[in-house]
Amino acid sequence: MDIKLVAIDMDGTLLNDSGEVSHNTVEALRQAKKRGIEIILSTGRVLKSATYFSDMLGLKNYIIASNGAIVSDKNSNIILKMPLDCETIKKIVEIAIEENIYFHFYNDDTYFSNKYIKEIDKYYNSSKERLKGQNIKFELFEDIDEVLRRDIEIYKFLFMDDDLEKLNKVKKKLSIISDITLSKSGINNIEITNKNASKGHALKYVSELLKIDKSQIMSIGDNDNDIPMLETAGISVAMGNAEKHIKEIADYVTKTNNEDGVAYAFRKFILE
What we know:
Layout: E1 5-8, H1 23-34, E2 38-42, H2 47-56, E3 63-65, E4 70-72, E5 78-81, H3 86-99, E6 102-106, E7 110-113, H4 118-121, H5 128-131, E8 137-140, H6 144-148, E9 156-160, H7 164-174, E10 180-183, E11 189-194, H8 199-209, E12 217-221, H9 227-231, E13 235-238, H10 244-249, E14 252-253, H11 261-271
Parallel strand pairs: 1-2, 1-12, 2-3, 7-8, 12-13, 13-14
Antiparallel strand pairs: 3-4, 4-5, 6-7, 6-9, 9-11, 10-11
């Protein structure tokens, strides 16, 4: 099988539950890179976080971040971006405040929230200590206009709540907004991006730049925001920890993110 490009989700896929890349996975990436395979991190995370891991792993490659709303090249130049417009942002924030649900949003290197950071520390990888090496900033705001006046490009919103009934109610309200895409990366969240942004669209964009055919692409993921990316690949791989409907649409199901599932897929389709 002539795989030339692999797109890998991060949370629940490349990273284990401790937020780390295992030794076996690092070694599999290293061997594949030596064979000339293009390895692209494709994540819902902020660009700065994805860049940190890409550099740490020695990939130095294209990066798809914020569910495809922003793409950077091998020299860390942003080559594609699809921010949310100001009116849409105001509508999203209005719904969040009406429903009293936690949310944050971000550009390429900063998280913005209207609640103190400890509110999200248990949910998300955003404490100052965890983000220290990634140089990601956190800003607290009171009024959304404070942020919008600064003409900051916002790529993604994340809503979080363990009350799934409340989450579904919020999702219904958000679905009325015509120019957004709704997805999720976990059972207790809603992710919101520009309607034209997806990991699949971004992967197609990068593969065309590299002149790599769909049949030569492998994608690996675990959740709903990975579906467009899985559908854009010749070989789609679902993690063993993925939800049932993700496994059903994938060509192959590998081991879990705590069992070196990415390394296992690399050995099956590339390294053997």
